[in-house]
């Protein structure tokens, strides 16, 4: 039978973001992530930066921008922050980003994207079933099965790729990092213990930048002087749109959607990347690429419709006046919508 999303048991834990807004947030994030690949491809051509240096600057730039937004927004009541949760999310983000960019350099953009985003939904669906009891209805099973098929068709349509065992293994490692942060965000969101999405993204990128700094220094952190203006502009875009903005919205949406739904909706990323490759990089759009795009969008639409239907069918929690929490046991707070949406 169709899956009913896990709902918080009390009004205090009820998320502020609706299912519909959660879907829009993840859709925007996935679309923005697709542009990161094009920006990275352009940076690899003339900046002199390697994958670890590029990932460091992306994380550091996202941290600085989100910190500025946090300092400028109106002051909000302080809420408890789990250091372990921040460190775990930051570690997952570091693994996801660094392993992915290394896989792109090792085996090419198409293969790295297919393996990462094809393995991710499978890992997430299995782990969500075991850890959180999430079940997929028939439509969800078809959608999750169709998503890797669509990605595979996209790779075939993109032409031959230089595959390598190391690159594929790095992409699988990246998928594990992505699965980890998706499941962790959903687990806390289902219990009303998710933090502010902006804070989650902010400190996660801080952890990512600090973790990557030694390796980035060893690889080479300074871009080439030639074309420095172009490099700065591309790094600025990479830090603002597919990083600071996209991840703040992603964490907000992932807290209120099923983990498997988030993983499949994120497959919009290779679709937007394929469109940019055709429009901006001059790559040829083949019939196989079109077919893969249609399959991916059908999978996204199927899970989005099922998620919305499950949200409408879920009974609303009764409204009551919450009792004051004791000093040692703070009451769970709602997950706020990201300030940047």
TrEMBL record:
Compartment list: Membrane
InterPro entries xref list: AA-Vitamin_Transporters, EamA_dom, EmrE-like
Entry keyword annotation includes Cell wall biogenesis/degradation: no
Coarse class of the protein's main subcellular location: membrane
Pfam families: EamA (PF00892)
Region (Disordered): 316-341
Bilayer topology term: Multi-pass membrane protein
Record-annotated EamA domain positions: 21-155, 166-302
Domain of life according to the entry: Bacteria
Transmembrane spans: 21-44, 56-72, 84-103, 109-128, 140-162, 168-189, 201-222, 234-252, 259-281, 287-305
Keyword flag Ion transport: no
Keywords: Membrane, Transmembrane, Transmembrane helix
Record-linked PANTHER family: EAMA DOMAIN-CONTAINING PROTEIN, INNER MEMBRANE TRANSPORTER
Family the entry assigns: Belongs to the EamA transporter family.
Entry protein name: EamA family transporter
Naturally occurring in which organism (per UniProt): Actinacidiphila polyblastidii
């Amino acid at each position: 039978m169709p899956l009913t999303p896990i709902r918080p048991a009390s009004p205090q834990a009820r998320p502020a973001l609706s299912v519909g807004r959660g879907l829009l947030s993840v859709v925007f994030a996935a679309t923005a992530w697709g542009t990161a690949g094009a920006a990275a491809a352009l940076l690899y051509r003339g900046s002199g930066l390697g994958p670890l240096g590029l990932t460091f600057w992306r994380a550091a730039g996202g941290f600085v921008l989100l910190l500025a937004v946090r300092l400028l927004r109106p002051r909000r009541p302080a809420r408890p922050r789990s250091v372990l949760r921040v460190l775990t999310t930051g570690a997952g983000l570091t693994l996801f980003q660094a392993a992915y960019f290394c896989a792109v350099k090792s085996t090419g953009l198409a293969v790295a994207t297919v393996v990462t985003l094809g393995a991710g939904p499978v890992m997430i669906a299995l782990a969500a079933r075991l850890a959180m009891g999430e079940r997929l209805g028939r439509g969800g099973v078809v959608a999750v099965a169709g998503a890797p098929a669509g990605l595979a068709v996209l790779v075939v349509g993109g032409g031959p790729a230089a595959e390598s065992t190391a690159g594929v293994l790095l992409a699988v490692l990246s998928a594990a990092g992505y699965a980890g942060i998706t499941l962790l965000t959903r687990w806390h969101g289902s219990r009303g213990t998710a933090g502010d999405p902006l804070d989650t993204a902010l400190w996660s990128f801080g952890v990512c930048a600090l973790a990557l700094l030694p390796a980035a220094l060893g690889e080479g952190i300074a871009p080439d002087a030639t074309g420095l203006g172009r490099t700065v502009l591309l790094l600025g875009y990479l830090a603002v749109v597919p990083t600071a903005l996209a991840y703040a919205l992603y964490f907000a949406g992932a807290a209120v959607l099923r983990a498997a739904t988030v993983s499949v909706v994120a497959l919009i990323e290779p679709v937007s990347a394929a469109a940019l490759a055709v429009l901006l990089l001059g790559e040829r759009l083949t019939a196989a690429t079109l077919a893969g795009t249609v399959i991916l969008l059908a999978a996204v639409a199927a899970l989005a419709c099922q998620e919305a239907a499950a949200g409408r069918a879920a009974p609303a929690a009764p409204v009551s006046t919450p009792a004051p929490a004791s000093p040692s046991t703070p009451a769970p707070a709602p997950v706020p919508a990201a300030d940047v949406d």
